[in-house]
Amino acid sequence: MNTPAPSRLDVCGLAKRYGDDTPVFRDVSFRLAAGEFVAIVGESGVGKSTLLNCIAGLDDWNAGQVLLDGQDVGGLDDTARALLRRRAVGFVFQAFHVLPHLDVAQNVALPLMLQHGRRAGDDERVAQMLDAVGLQGLGQRLPQQLSGGQLQRVAIARALVHRPLLLLADEPTGNLDPATAERVMDALVAQTRAQGAALLLVTHSPAAAARADRVLRLRADGMAEAP
User: Fold this and answer.
1) Which member of 5, 101, 156, 184 has the lowest number of beta carbons within 10 Å of its beta carbon?
2) In the predicted model, what is the mean pLDDT of the chain?
3) How far apart are alpha carbons 168 and 54 in whole angstroms?
4) What SS3 string covers the chain?
5) Would you say residue 18 has pLDDT above 90?
6) Distance between CA 112 and CA 118 in Å, rounded?
7) Which residues pair with 38 in a beta bridge?
8) In the chain, what are the domains?
9) 1 pLDDT more than 70
10) Confidence category of residue 204, pLDDT binned at 50, 70, 90
């Protein structure tokens, strides 16, 4: 008998409103297992990015529960949420969010610096991640010297360098042409699989969503398996 993979994320009856009477979504429930890749799709404005922010503890919600690696995110104060994110969560965004005054290796090393300061072995870990996403030899370049696809691979390396349990990716291929988007998705999926991380991807791209183990559709009244 196969033992189910442990849960990395449990979202139970989550509801979010803006102000007192502007609903974003309600009754959102789903589970993400260790090593699983789930894509979330839905109409523009339904709150997909807001949902990711709630899961990460960057935004508050009005009802329901978020359990990340068994911890109740809603029950943590801001400091504890930040420490949990540093330990357990990686982020990849559509707009890359690399720091222009730092070189590629320094950008990738940021999660390690935030988590524990500088340690022996960090440079090797950064170099390994750059190699893994196809950026070997580019660690000393500045972001403005890279293409959009390369910048997104920097963001993937940075998101995974501290070996998070959960990777949250918000439209990571939205600014890329189809061929570059495919290469970026190759790197994203390969590296999350290699690390055994759970991957939650928000996307409008049918090609990106098709690579997921499951596709969920977010609606104003909840979450459902996409056909």
Assistant:
1) 101
2) 92
3) 11
4) CCCCCCEEEEEEEEEEEECCCEEEEEEEEEEEECCCEEEEECCCCCCHHHHHHHHCCCCCCCEEEEEECCEEHHHCCHHHHHHHHHHHEEEEECCCCCCCCCCHHHHHHHHHHHHHCCCCCHHHHHHHHHHHCCCCCCCCCCHHHCCHHHHHHHHHHHHHCCCCCEEEEECCCCCCCHHHHHHHHHHHHHHHHHHCCEEEEECCCHHHHCCCCEEEEEECCEEEECC
5) no
6) 7
7) 200, 214
8) 7-225 (3.40.50.300)
9) no
10) very high
Q: 């183990």: which residue's tokens?
A: 213
Q: How many CA atoms lie within 13 A of 224 on its CB side?
A: 7
- pLDDT for 214 equals 96
- Chain Cα centroid distance, residue 104: 19
**What are the structure tokens assigned to 16, written together?**
């979010």
